[in-house]
Amino acid sequence: MSGRERRAELTPAQRGLWFGELWERSAAGAGGAAAGSALYHVNASLRVRGPLDADALHRALSALVERHPVLRARIEDGTPPTMHDPGPGVLAMPVVDLSHAPQTAPETAAARLADEVGRPFDLARGPLLRAALLTVTADEHVLVLVLHHLVCDGLSLGLVYRDLGELYRGCTGEEVRPAPAASWFDRDGAAAPGRAEAVRHWVRALHDAPALVELPTDRPRPSDAGSAGRRCGCRYRRGCGTRCVPPAHAGG
Question: Deepest of 78, 83, 204, 217, by most Cβ within 10 A of its Cβ?
């Protein structure tokens, strides 16, 4: 945890995400900070059943951001672009009570969740995490958690859930001892050995590469790039996943 202001260069992977976000926004046209898409948004929202202490949850979220300062950071454009932790602040968590209209509460909650997930982040202002609590009934809630992929991936999302759960239990009076946190800003920012030579190699190798690769797809390439997609569901028989583990481990 840290209360001081800090800056650090984006990692190569983060630079790629940052460039992709700016590309999406430029393709969307003029619109300032509101332009862009949810392509790099991580929907970490949770459905909570049972009694919930909203005040304790808000304190737990604030403690989570203090524990992981990258969640309150913003991006500063420059050469190179940097992640800027402005120091302690209060993370907003509006509480929206939908229980007064039980017939429409589930649909209203779903619409609010979709709006929160789809609303672009202002990368220059931060934070790259937003939260809201939707009360559907007295014993059913939706904790809206949306993060930008610049500050969260699949591995770190597990840590977010673990720490938030422990911090919430601590804020409700339980005795917990969270594991020590490792801050993104305390990492070793030195470039990996051989990276500069690898970059020079690929610059030379791709010097004459075509600007556009025409692949034999089943439909014409659209004039404007997009990120629209569909969800395809598939059901597997019970035990299928378990049987796949040994050969997957054997194959590395």
Answer: 83
Please give the biggest Cα pair distance in the chain.
65
H-helix segments, 131-230: 154-171, 195-205
DSSP 9-43: EPPHHHHHHHHHHHHHHHHH-S-GGG---STTEEE
Residue 104, Cβ neighbours under 10 Å: how many? 10
Sort 65 into a burial class: Cβ within 10 Å, 0-12 / 13-18 / 19+: buried
Strands lying side by side in the sheet with 82-85: 6-9, 82-85, 74-76
Q: What is the mean pLDDT of the chain?
A: 86
Q: Which domains does the chain have, with CATH numbers?
A: 6-186 (3.30.559.10)
Once rounded to an integer, what is the mean pLDDT over residues 189-200? 76
Q: What is the DSSP letter of 151?
A: S
Window from 26-40, 53-67, 185-199 with minimum mean pLDDT: 26-40
Pairing, β 41-43 against β 82-85? unpaired
Angle CA 64–182–187, to nearest 5:
130
Helix (H) or strand (E) holding 92: none
Neighbour tally for 3: CB within 10 Å: 9
**The pTM of the whole model exceeds 0.85:** no
